[in-house]
Amino acid sequence: MLQLIQLFVDMMERVGFLIALAFAFSRSRWMRSYMSYQGDRTYQWRFLFFFSAYAILATYSGVTVSDYTYRPAPWIGEVSPTAAIANARTVGVVIAGLLGGVKSGFIVGIIAGVHRYSLGGFVAVACMIAPILQGILAGLCRNAFKKRFRKIASVQLAFLVGFMAEALQMILILALAKPWEDAFNLVSLIGLPQTLANSVGVALYFVLYNTMEREEARIGAEHAHQALQIADMTMPLWRLDFDKAVAEISKVLNEEMKSVGAFFSKDGVTWIAEGRKTQHANDLIIRVPNRPQVGQFRLYFEREQDDNPSRRRMLSSLAELLSQQYAFVESDRQTQLLADAEIRSLQAQMNPHFLFNVLNTVKSFIRTKPEEARQMVMHLSKFLRKNMSHGNQRLITIRDEYELVMSYLSLIKSRLGDQMEFYADIDERLLDHAIPPFTIQPLIENAIMHGIKNKPGIGVIRLSVKEELDEGKLHARITVQDNGVGLEPAELDSQSEHAGLALRNIEQRLNYHYGKEHPLEIASKPGEGTIIKFWVR
User: In what order do the strands lie in the sheet with 83-86?
Assistant: First the structure.
């Protein structure tokens, strides 16, 4: 009995050494991710390496048992044919299975078992097979009690699994080791001390694991609070003009994240530079669905920041929150722009002068040209209906927009007669491409009201929808051209209120949907006319 107690004390010293080593590793955030693997493939092989090394170290630090007694030694190099090792190898294998599952327990068990077999001894075969089965057993128990081990690992369950795994090893020694009398005497000596010590070792590791989990949860909560606090501060800033918004948000990020520099770049060009650059940086990428990357904030730090799952989740969540804020504000802004476009279109077309002119023309045609009067009423009805339906949509087809243009031109041409000619060159394959509503029609309207209306002679408007190469890819290109009075470059921003606002409205909506900073390409020469082009991607 005294010998059993002494062996148990020696085994607990070995187990205590391994747990102390694990505690020292747990203080390093770099190692902590490998010690608490929960399915993240980034750390899978590092996790397997860590616990394989852990199990091998437990074998080397065991005590040699021979002639029904044992001799403590600081390090085991080899085992004589008549000897065995009392060790804590089971601790590393069982922990790998409980945390990583059957696959991880199996792999660590193979490595630990093959290593033990290489040392020799009359129980080498049994001690090679035992870690493999122990790893599988621990993995199966982990799956059976998945919720308990995934949330807060149960120390009691860990002890029970460790006890069963060690008991399995003793059974294998009795079943496979020869001669059986030596195997029986060995199990009688080391069975109870080793089983209890290793079960306690597994349980102690999960005490440490629980502490790690609680600490990670606390750090995660702090990070989540920090991300939400920053998001709360940045939300109203997105409502500023874009360049001002990112400048103010860079200041907030720089201050709240305790960085030494915050930069914002778009399309590879730095827009905002707050602070200075260092070698240590983190990126917050701003992106919205169905659009090119909006841009990215890059935060620079004086020293390398801790790279752990909690911090990575915080940075990812913060980038997602900023992206959602941008998308929400832009969506709200686009709704307002669309409403403004609809109101301006209705105001421009349905003002008393427009209605008076259309109805007056219809009145004059009723007796002389009844068929044309009927057509004008139909076009007016169609124009009103499409105006109202398009105002409720973010995107429509080029076909729908073209029909709106033709209804509008039919009403205008009835008044202008031969003073205006309209030509359309449209690739029918592109008619089902989606574009924001009220894009082509206001351009046609501008061409008439501010181009050919004040031009002597016949005014000509050309609409082209063609597929052309842009940055190596084929995209639809829409062109509206007139031969009107044209404008000086300085006059482009000083047109009438309706014309200037309409162009800016169109440009902002195209920018939102296609991500191009200045989507409208405007070329105008006095006396020669104006050409406006934009891409549909």
Answer: 69-71, 63-66, 83-86
pTM for this structure?
0.48
- Please report, as a single letter, which amino acid is at residue 293: Q
Tens-of-pLDDT digits for all 537 residues of the chain? 667 787 777 778 778 778 877 777 766 665 666 566 555 566 677 788 888 888 888 888 877 777 655 555 555 656 666 667 778 888 889 888 888 888 889 999 999 999 888 888 888 899 899 999 999 999 888 877 765 554 445 788 889 998 999 999 999 989 998 888 888 888 888 888 888 888 888 888 888 887 777 777 777 677 777 788 888 888 888 778 778 888 888 888 888 888 888 888 887 777 778 888 888 888 888 887 766 677 888 888 887 765 556 677 788 888 888 888 887 777 776 666 665 665 455 445 445 556 666 777 777 778 777 877 777 787 777 777 776 666 667 788 999 889 888 888 887 877 777 788 899 999 999 999 988 888 898 898 888 888 887 788 888 999 999 998 877 788 899 999 999 888 766 555 544 444 566 788 788 778 777 777 778 888 888 888 899 999 887
Residue 340 identity (one-letter amino acid): D
CA 165, CA 180: separation in Å to the nearest integer? 21
Three-state secondary structure string covering 102-119 = HHHHHHHHHHHHHHHHHH
Phi, psi dihedral angles at 473 (to 5 degrees) = -125, 150
Helix (H) or strand (E) holding 403: helix 398-416
Which structure tokens are listed for 530? 């104006």
Residue 240 in tokens: 């500023």
Would you state the structure tokens that stand for residue 145, as one six-digit string? 């009690």
d(CA 221, CA 323): 21
**Which letter, b or e, does each residue of 250-281 get, where b requires 16 or more Cβ atoms within 10 Å of its Cβ?**
bbbbbebbebbbbbbbbeeeeebebbeeeeee
From residue 2, give the alpha-carbon distance in Å to each of 62, 193, 303: 19, 11, 56
Please say whether the dihedral angle defined by the alpha carbons of residues 390, 395, 400 and 405, taken in this order, is positive or negative. positive
Q: Say how far apart CA 391 and CA 381 lie, in whole Å.
A: 16
Rounded to the nearest angstrom, the gap between the alpha carbon of residue 258 and the centroid of all alpha carbons in its chain is: 23
C-beta of residue 348 within 8 angstroms of C-beta of residue 354: yes
Tell me how far apart the alpha carbons of residues 180 and 177 are, in angstroms, rounded to a whole number: 6
Amino acid at 68: Y
Q: Tally the residues of the chain.
A: 537
Three-state secondary-structure class, residue 476: strand
Number of CB atoms found within 10 A of residue 320's CB = 16
Helices marked H in 279-397? 309-349, 352-368, 370-390
